[in-house]
Amino acid sequence: MLIQIVIGILFFIGVYILISDEQKWLRVTTYSYIILLTIIFAIGYITELNSLQNSELFDISALQQWVYVFGYLYSVPLMIVSAYIWIPYPKKYKTLRSRVLMIALIIFIIMTTGHFLNLFFRLLFLGIA
After folding, report:
1. What is the pTM of this model?
2. Cα–Cα distance between 18 and 78 in angstroms, integer?
3. At 34, is the secondary structure helix, strand, or coil?
4. Which of 10, 48, 73, 120 is 20 to 30 Å from 65 by CA-CA measure?
């Protein structure tokens, strides 16, 4: 459980670094969303773990669904915020072709990173189960 808390703190620091220079409405919305989502996830995760430990059937599917849903609820908005922040940067390129290629590269990197974060989230909270 300690490693999950440490990685969660590192995640909050990463989000803070990502949006620290942005407009106030984006910072407040993102921080509020992540804090509210974390509270809901932590309460539900602990409840699911307790019900799993008290159960005689040992059905892990409810816990898996909980972690899968919240993995997407963390990664997809983070990809959207990252795209909102990084897509305007290629405007300094002069040709349309180079701008389009840079935007495509940025979107590819954001989506790849978001999906790896989702996979990491699943592995962190489910392990090999």
Report:
1. 0.82
2. 10
3. helix
4. 10
